[in-house]
Amino acid sequence: MPKIEGTERIDQYRIRVPKGFVQGMRTEGIIFVDEILEQELELDSVRQVANVATLPGIVGKSLAMPDIHTGYGFPIGGVAAFDTEEGIISPGGVGYDINCGVRLLKSNLTRDEIEPRIKELVDLLYIHIPSGVGSTGKIKLNYEELKKVARKGAIWAVEQGYGEPDDLQRIESHGCLEGADPEVISKKAYERGKDQLGTLGSGNHFLEVQYVAEIYEPEIAEAMGLFKNQVTVMIHTGSRGFGHQICDDYVREMIQATKKYGIELPDKELACAPFLSKEGQRYFAAMKAAANYAWANRQCLMHWTREVFLRVFKLSPKELAMSVVYDVAHNIAKEEIHMVNGKKMRVVVHRKGATRAFPKGHPELPQCYTHIGQPVIIPGDMGRVSFVLIGQDKAMQETFGSTCHGAGRLLSRTQAIKKAKGRSIKQELANRGIIVKSAGKETLAEEMPEAYKDVSNVVDVVHNAGLAHKVVKLKPMGVIKG
């Protein structure tokens, strides 16, 4: 019996949300879950998959990954593609933290070299990586300079000395989406963004020092420069208040556009506009600017992380060899070419809490990865593990080249705080050998491991369904939380 009445199990890893689950569905929904994760499905998130299927111009299925949970309009973990001629674009399909994403760094250090000094390392990282709600950083920008960030993304950061040109080669879209328009962004967004570049933020954002605990695909791991017990660093953050304000501004504009173009919605949080309309193109250009800000943000944080490692271990840059494995966006909309019903079609793919997972040979991959496919970085909670996967052909056939983005929340923030009452999450993690430094005690409670699904279960589904294959498992040693 399916947990959610009206859904149907297709096979071991997929359930169907049939047309008719909600009125007006133009296509069916597909959710990638096994029987274990199906028990954690929320009715509201399944209804959101169905609601997305009602939107004009949707092509293929309305999709959700195994880390699905309820979001704003679209589910988190959702993927939907729309015809660029007949379809829509929706801020709810990207989310408030535009281009929230993950960057993975590798180094020449090993677990044994780091362990005796992990507390010192975490303390110094905490000093140099600004974190917390509304945190501001070392970089102060005027409007004109911030417009350059919006246009150039991570390229701007490297030009200012925050990193090396080689870093850009291993970032999705090389850290810059063309077509960003700084003139369609509100003064309020600039005001929120001008002091926040180079900050981690709060909530589920983090910087984590890890080591490679297990290797599943030795040849692919080697091609990525990863080896057993190697120290890595994972940075998870996005476009901060700049992107949040852009989303907020355009949700309001889209509510008016929805009325103007006579689009009927089952939920006002799906507010949208035809992709080619003036409103649709304005949002797309503003979203690209926020995406570029996020890539510049992760670039700056990487630069300071590298500096802290050099200082603590007194190594030369060549000896440390800290470099990017890959940087992926998991809240974004992109124009891409996909095969739909046997024909090549230009679509705008919304990935909200979903990661691109292109297979080997795809023309958008950096040259160093064309022979293996795109690295897919999947963080877990701070007490368990994270994974690096590799994109597969089946993702192109079934999910517009997409896979999951993380563990997915199991408890709301309020529920997590209630469950953590009377406990020291910091001490519990220390007992597992994980040193955590956080801007607030409440953040640790909100983000405690039990607040999330087990990422190993999530990753097993996408691995077994053939969307992306496991390459390495990473274990945390030290964590900076917002």
TrEMBL record:
GO terms for MF: GTP binding; metal ion binding; RNA ligase (ATP) activity; RNA ligase (GTP) activity
PROSITE patterns named among the record's database cross-references: UPF0027
Coiled-coil intervals, chain numbering: none
InterPro entries: RtcB, RtcB-like_sf
Signal peptide: none
Catalytic activity: a 3'-end 3'-phospho-ribonucleotide-RNA + a 5'-end dephospho-ribonucleoside-RNA + GTP = a ribonucleotidyl-ribonucleotide-RNA + GMP + diphosphate; a 3'-end 2',3'-cyclophospho-ribonucleotide-RNA + a 5'-end dephospho-ribonucleoside-RNA + GTP + H2O = a ribonucleotidyl-ribonucleotide-RNA + GMP + diphosphate + H(+)
Binding residues annotated for GMP, in chain numbering: 204-208, 330-331, 379-382, 386, 405-408, 481
Active site: H405 (gmp-histidine intermediate)
Details of cofactor binding: Binds 2 manganese ions per subunit.
Any one GO biological process: RNA processing
Family: Belongs to the RtcB family.
Subunit structure: Monomer.
The protein, known as: tRNA-splicing ligase RtcB
Organism (species): Thermodesulfovibrio obliviosus
Gene giving rise to this polypeptide: rtcB
